[in-house]
Amino acid sequence: MTERLTRQQSRQLTRERLLEAAARLFADQGVGGTSVEQIVEAAGYTRGAFYGNFDGKHELVLGLLEERTRHELAEVRAMDVGAGGFEETLDRLRAWHRRRDENLAGWLALRTELWLYALRDPELRPVLAERERHSREIIARSLEQGFTERGIALPAPAEQLALIVHALDDGLSIQRVLAPTGGGSESVVDAVELLLASWAALARTAPTAGTGPENPAPGAAAASTEQEEENP
After folding, report:
1. SS (H, E, C) the chain
2. Which residue among 4, 17, 94, 166 is least crowded, i.e. fewest CB within 10 A of its CB?
3. What CA–CA distance (Å, rounded) separates 42 from 36?
4. What is the pLDDT of residues 154-167, one digit of tens each?
5. What is the structure's pLDDT at 226?
């Protein structure tokens, strides 16, 4: 026998289906181009069911932004949990991108719609900023782990490097939707690995603190004097 849902469970299910329907419609025709009537019709409910869960479309957009934030942050955090090392984290990142690629255009369209809506609303902008901050913190911790495993010091603050990686992911996602032949799901992680290799090389070759033209490394002044004597 099918277990009967409680009132609270039924309401939660209705809310989830309304959010799912809104997400599909927002991705296809935008937040501004979607009405409450279209959302309830796509979800299979009435306007009464909608207003029993949301005060209006604005509250639904806020709920969708918060729901997607929780979901995506949970996915990103899961990449580190139980990973045997940074290389395994990168493998999980590749797998995540492959799954996202199954509907990359729709994912990006919805994400862009929610971003634009939040950027234009002073109430929602802090929610969006907090979401991005959490993502960057997770990336920063992963980068610190990767450099620690290699025995290399970070060439710049982890937060700054995380911002670059995060922006790179966003930019490459847009370019891959616009030019699908430019690279598959591997391109993002390949680009991240290229950045890591460059940063690692930079960290290895960076001069120690206090060295430079005005403060040469030990022995550099003597070598310079010897060269001048040989080549007056």
Report:
1. CCCCCCHHHHHHHHHHHHHHHHHHHHHHHCCCCCCHHHHHHHHCCCHHHHHCCCCCHHHHHHHHHHHHHHHHHHHHHHCCCCCCCHHHHHHHHHHHHHHHHHHHHHHHHHHHHHHHHHHCCCCCHHHHHHHHHHHHHHHHHHHHHHHHHCCCCCCCCHHHHHHHHHHHHHHHHHHHHHCHHHCCCHHHHHHHHHHHHHHHHHHHHCCCCCCCCCCCCCCHHHHHHHHHHHCC
2. 4
3. 10
4. 889 999 999 999 99
5. 45
Structure-token pair, residue 127 = 């929610």
Residue ranges of domains in the chain, CATH in brackets: 10-54 (1.10.10.60), 62-204 (1.10.357.10)
CA distance to 66, 181, 222, 223, per residue, from 17 (Å): 15, 35, 75, 74
Gap between the Cα atoms of 212 and 203, Å rounded: 16
Please tell me the distance from the alpha carbon of residue 128 to that of residue 62, in angstroms, as a whole number. Answer: 10
- pLDDT band of 150, cuts 50, 70, 90: confident
pTM, entire model = 0.73
Give tens-digit pLDDT for 200-209.
888 777 664 4
The rounded percent of the chain whose pLDDT value lies above 70 is 85
